[in-house]
Amino acid sequence: MKVGLGVTGCIAAYKAIEVMRGLQKAGVQVQAILTRSARRFVGPLTFEALSGQNVITDMFRSGRNLSIEHIRLAQEIQLLAVVPATANILGKFAHGIADDFLTTLYLSCPAPVLLAPAMNAEMWRHPAVGDSVRILRRRGHLFVNPEEGALACGMEGEGRLADTNLITSRILEALRRDDSLAKQKVLVTAGPTVEDIDPVRFLSNRSSGKMGYAVARAAWQRGAEVILVSGPTMLDPPAGVRTISVRSAAEMKNAVLELYPQVNIVIKAAAVADYRPVAYAPDKIKKSGQPASLSLVPTDDILGHLGAAKKNQILVGFTAETQDLVRRAREKMASKNLDLVVATDASSGVFGSDSATVHILLPTGETVTVENCSKLEIAQRILDLTLRVQKLRNAGSASH
Fold first, then answer.
1. CB contact set of 249 (below 8 Å; sequence gap of 6+)
2. How many CB atoms lie within 10 A of CB 380?
3. Residue of 10, 109, 153, 373 marked catalytic
């Protein structure tokens, strides 16, 4: 997939590099287009070095006019994103002014458009800018609104460019890959669970939730109706996905079992705590200076419950091990009646990272290894294989 990334003249122009890198990690090709004003804040050489692509900076460049470049690019890209989008570019887009490459590309582009404005707070509140934004919203363009905070001018208020991770995720969500999961309902669990000991302490694990959130986002991109049941994370909920927040293993179990009969596919990426305290202490446990012990009992096995109750659903489980990875994953697949298992080496520093290596075990005995890829790429591969297993099962049912 290919995105046109327009960069306009604003102090936040350098942040477009972070957006470009995030898209590249997700396997998206990026063509950067810098306006004349943008080049005063950030040089094209940085974008060229990081993207491996020539950066477009002018309508008329020697040796680049054998084809009408803005028309060619308009047909190649699946989305045009402008990061940051100044008041000037919003006004030009709204009123059809085409006086450089980016504005001419905009008028030629049939693809969706995403705009991430950034400017002074007074400019963002000005009626003229508001009119431009309303016009562009009516055209169906997507916006990632600016945030409140300290601005480059020294003022405080709304106008600062939105977080680049949020902008990147919104672009990826707009790039819905296909409709391979259309009319399907997918339940995803993500993140850790938290088992409270007293008002200030708890048991948990290192899960960041990034893998489960990537699966939810990828399933939505493929046209599914997605429900995400998430333990506590620092992540923004994926756009278009219904997100249910839980804390403990018991809360996650209740939410999942209630939803289970309604869905076609369940992908259990959450790292559910294996143990919880026998009792919760309503007051903070004081340090005594003496050795202390904590009595624990196992939490309910959510995946085991789902496997035992499975009817027509496809059930995907995850496992993180420090030794005998594939063998233990196979044992988990058999004992919990799973259709797929995604196995990760827990000693490899995978928790919290944006990329990983996983081994996906299929019921045919095949193991597919996805090596050192972004978690969104891994999510897409998991969904590919989930669909393959689903088709094989449906074909087997039809033959009987």
1. 193, 195, 272, 273, 276, 299, 300, 302
2. 22
3. 153
Joined tokens for residue 256: 């999942």
The CA distances from residue 332 to 23, 55, 158, 325, 351, in Å, are 34, 50, 50, 11, 21
State how far Cα 159 lies from the chain centre: 24
Over residues 46-75, the pLDDT tens digits come to 888 887 778 898 876 655 544 466 678 888
The CA distances from residue 247 to 3, 120, 201, in Å, are 37, 39, 14
- 231, 247 Cβ separation under 8 angstroms: yes
3-state secondary structure of 132: helix
pTM: 0.64
Q: Where are the domains of the chain?
A: 2-174, 185-276+296-399
- CATH number of the 2-174 domain: 3.40.50.1950
What are the φ and ψ backbone dihedral angles of 93, each rounded to 5 degrees? Answer: -60, -45
Homologous superfamily of 185-276+296-399 in CATH?
CoaB-like (3.40.50.10300)
In the residue annotation, 10 being an active-site residue is answered as no
